[in-house]
Amino acid sequence: MPHFHLPDIDFKPDDTAPALMKTFTGEFMKAALVKYDEGIAPPPHFHPNEEQFIYLLEGKLRMVLGDDTTTILPGDVVHIPRNVMHGILPVEGGCLFWSVKSPPGDGRHSQDYNRADNAEDLQKVMAGMK
């Protein structure tokens, strides 16, 4: 039975996003503990081959998901379907969340990252939210 003790695993830089992650890969899904500093996040994007769940543990996120914009707080869970554009912006400090994606692909958490055509506009929307 695979068992992981999170304090024994180092955060490592992600290969496409400015995040630090502790990643885990199974047969049908991959998971990561993800940490971003305030104001730092990947540009809005979509995953054509993966769906994702995010469970916010610490911090506050402004989020764009499809046509919706909202604020995510600790304890909130967000489902991100395949092909739905989304983006986050940590505000009032950094954030820590648990992310699960399926299918696992090659295990890299940002393997299926595709930048949204209007990423810069959406980043401005999130930055201007109150």
Explain how this protein is built:
This protein has one helix at 119-128; strands spanning 12-13, 20-25, 30-36, 45-46, 51-65, 68-72, 77-80, 86-102, 114-115. The model has no long low-confidence stretch (mean pLDDT 93). Strands 1, 2, 3, 5, 6, 7 and 8 form a seven-stranded antiparallel sheet that branches. The chain has one helix and nine strands, in the order βββββββββα. It has 130 residues and is mainly beta. It has a single domain (11-128), classed as Jelly Rolls (Sandwich), CATH 2.60.120.10. It starts with 11 loop residues before the first strand and ends with a helix.
Question: What are the salient characteristics of this protein?
Answer:
single chain, 130 residues, mainly beta, seven-stranded antiparallel β-sheet, 1 helix, globular
